[in-house]
Design a protein that fits this description.
Number of strands: 20
CATH superfamily of the domain at 471-621: Glucose Permease (Domain IIA)
Structural class: alpha+beta
Strand order of the largest sheet: 15-11-12-13-17-9-8-19
CATH topology of the domain at 471-621: Glucose Permease (Domain IIA)
Mean pLDDT: 82
Largest sheet: 8 strands, antiparallel
Helix content: 40-55%
């Protein structure tokens, strides 16, 4: 259950990535069409109609590979191949696989990329090994997907169009449910998935200027479909004007001792909602502490969508500036301003009445403990380090991503998070969906803050604890015969290109930690592990030669990346007989991969063999 929830959280965050550039496409289209500048209009139209699915596929790749450029190139190769093949198979050059086609290609090609990025080919094909294999396999995956989409997509798309027609045919009920349900999903962060389906996939319209089929409520509105935008116009009331009324009510009902602080927070939150369409900073001030206010917000959101639909307002977008950008496509758009003022007043009066009646424990209603000295928002240069500390430190973070407003993390111990400190640094809420999954709502700066945390974590690597010149002893991780590196039949190891050390020809399957430190990397399949010691040494234990080709067969790893281990702790086990039966050597290099920090690496074993846990090497750091 937890892994499934984490998957949806990561998908939701990935879907935000391509959304960030869409306002530019809308501006290009608006300027081009209004000023008669054909190239600008063509650029905006191309971004929205032709390449939008590819951007969503690339977003999936970026979100699931932490920005690996070769992974994105693999998706591009797969998508271009898929669309070309699908058009031929379907016999329709106007075939539009839509955002779902882009997402499917992104998911499949990213999955394939993860499978091949560590594959080692024979030396005469080494140019195509590893990550460089990604685009080729991506194109092959696109070939298969092209046949599937060319065969099955036309009836699927007909069903999607029918779903859109049903939604529109449901009239006010469907519109109300859609507007309200999006607010219900806000605490989970999964509302983006539903929004993307409606905005970029539901419905169909043939653009008379290009003959291309255009899908999605928002994309059709921007392309000029006169029927589109009616489902979206109510969001200007919910996302632009409603948060202003709620923020004013929360501020005016705050305790006098907190009113100034709450006012500052709510002013920033309201402006963020109005200008960017990002409502969480306002919503998270009340939705968890007051179910009554949350329920009221859901009803008003559905009402806003219903009223705009009933008045036949066609206007696409979510933030107030989009009214001006998309004005050339509007129908009855002038009604948004009086309705917006009405909804601001409605939110203000209803929220203030509920707060005064129930005094829920929301922002401004609860006396907060005084912050310790110096515990306010840190200076910008120390912000990442302060957030990292509040999240439990680098060792507590397994994964870190960001969507439009949230830091999305998987942590080892959620209890290590300092919620109060995170709120002092601007968090609207700290959510724990389950297990080690955590969301910290930071507003529009979430992406910037995630990068600052990564930078701080990279700079928090353990500083050397052994004084320069002192000996550091590494124990053998494996039992077996010790072999000098120059006798290892692999030029990468024998030439010390991967680091300096020795090899041990394994005779049993025990794998121990050669030193105390942190497990930084576990290679796919578990045939190799990388560790960093408190002394600043970077170590690699590689079990066997060419064992990457076994894809994990015969290996069982007992630790995870980020785990702290002591010298001699169990890292895992392997099956020497199975490895040997596959024709692989059991010569296992044990390396210091940053020998530039060492003055000397010397033998510490006695005789020809060594047992796991016995001294193997001594390392002297440079003075």
């Amino acid at each position: 259950m937890r892994s499934r929830q984490a998957l949806f959280q990561r998908v939701s965050a990935s879907l935000i990535i391509p959304i960030t550039f869409l306002p530019l496409a809308a501006v290009l289209l608006a300027l081009g069409s209004q000023l008669g500048i054909g190239p600008l209009e063509a650029a905006g139209r191309s971004l929205l109609q032709l390449w939008l699915p590819l951007f969503f596929g690339a977003g999936i790749s970026l979100g699931f590979t932490d920005g690996d450029g070769m992974a994105v190139l693999s998706v591009v190769a797969g998508f271009l191949t898929m669309t070309a093949v699908a058009e031929k198979v379907a016999g329709d050059p106007t075939l539009n696989v839509g955002v779902l086609g882009g997402l499917a290609t992104g998911a499949v090609c990213t999955w394939v990329y993860h499978k091949v990025k560590d594959v080692s080919l024979p030396e005469y094909l080494a140019l195509f090994s590893g990550k460089r294999l990604g685009p080729m396999t991506g194109a092959l995956a696109g070939l298969v997907l092209g046949y599937l989409f060319g065969t099955f997509w036309p009836p699927i798309h007909a069903g999607i169009v029918a779903l859109g027609q049903w939604l529109y045919g449901a009239g006010g009920i469907g519109v109300f449910v859609y507007g309200a349900f999006l607010r219900i999903l806000i605490p989970t962060g999964l509302h983006h998935i539903l929004m993307q389906l409606i905005d970029y996939q539901i419905g169909g319209w043939v653009d008379p200027t290009t003959g291309k089929l255009v899908a999605g409520e928002y994309v059709r509105f921007l392309a000029g479909d006169p029927a589109a935008g009616r489902l979206l116009s109510g969001f200007f009331l919910t996302l632009g004007f409603g948060p202003l009324g709620a923020a004013l009510a929360i501020t005016h009902e705050a305790k006098p001792s907190q009113r100034r602080r709450v006012g500052g927070l709510m002013t920033t939150a309201a402006l963020t909602a109005m200008l960017l369409g990002v409502t969480e900073p306002v919503e998270f001030a009340f939705i968890f502490a007051s179910p009554l206010l949350f329920g009221l917000h859901i009803l008003l959101a559905g009402l806003g969508s219903l009223v705009a639909w009933a008045l036949n307002i066609h206007l696409g977008g979510y933030a107030l500036p989009m009214i001006l950008i998309n004005w050339h496509r509007q129908q009855n758009g002038w009604l948004i301003l009086p309705l917006g003022l009405l909804f601001t007043a409605l939110y203000y009066v209803s929220f203030r009445a509920v707060i005064r009646w129930r005094r829920p424990p929301i922002l401004g209603q609860v006396e907060e403990a005084a912050a310790p000295a110096g515990a306010g928002a840190p200076p910008a240069e120390g912000e990442g380090a302060a957030l990292l500390q509040a999240l439990g430190g680098a060792a507590n973070i397994v994964t870190l991503n960001a969507c439009m407003t949230r830091l999305r993390l998987t942590v080892r111990d959620p209890a290590l998070l300092d919620d109060a400190r995170l709120r002092q640094m601007g968090a609207s809420a700290v959510l724990r969906p389950g297990g080690g999954d955590v969301q910290v709502v930071m507003g529009a700066r979430a992406g910037e803050l995630a990068q600052r945390i990564r930078t701080a974590a990279a700079g928090s690597a353990p500083s050397p604890s052994a004084p320069a010149g002192e000996l550091i002893t590494l124990v053998s991780p494996i039992t077996g015969r010790v072999v000098p590196l120059e006798q290892v039949p692999d030029p990468v190891f024998s030439g010390r290109l991967a680091g300096d050390g020795v090899a041990v020809e394994a005779t049993d399957g025990l794998l121990l930690a050669p030193a105390a430190g942190r497990v930084m990397l576990i290679f796919p399949g578990g045939h190799a592990l990388g560790l960093t010691t408190p002394d600043g040494l970077e170590l690699l234990v590689h079990v066997g030669l060419d064992t990457v080709e076994l894809h994990g067969q015969g290996f069982s790893i007992a630790v995870a990346e980020g785990d702290e281990v002591a010298a001699g702790d169990l890292l895992g086990r392997f099956d020497p007989a199975q490895i040997r039966a596959q024709g692989k050597s059991l010569l296992s290099p044990v390396l210091v991969t940053n020998p530039d920090v060492t003055a000397e690496i010397a033998a510490a074993w006695q005789g020809e063999t060594v047992r796991a846990g016995e001294p193997l090497l001594t390392v002297r750091r440079k003075r």
